Amino acid sequence: MHQSLNEILHGIRGIHIYSQVGIGKLALGDLFEALDQWIRAQRTSENGSPIGRFDRTFSVSQMRALRNTLELVMLDLGQDEFFTRTGFELSEGAALLDRLNSALLHPLRIDKAMRQRAQ
What pTM does this model have? Predict the structure, then answer.
């Protein structure tokens, strides 16, 4: 996600951030900065990936923006360039896109066990 945000803000040209992503450039920059600061504060694994979790609450508009950002980057870069510029396979991006779509479709994740106990 970090690399996708970076591509939209600093790499890919011709993106109309507000109309295509769903939030303004400053708000998208704030999301990037929060994630960037967290990454810089983490210990890293041998491959350079941060160790730990980025636990943060996002608004629906922020979630949509993250989802739209990832989709735009995937579509713009394609399989080979996506890997070159982000360090991840397009299939990994697609899996994250599926997770974001799922979170947006089911914003109130009520545990099934809790529902069953209430019946």
Answer: 0.78
In the chain, where are the structural domains located? 2-108
Task: Report pLDDT digits (tens) over 62-91.
Answer: 999 999 999 999 999 998 899 999 888 999
Pull the structure tokens for residue 4.
């996708």
- Does residue 113 carry a pLDDT above 70? no
Residue 45 has pLDDT above 90, yes or no: no
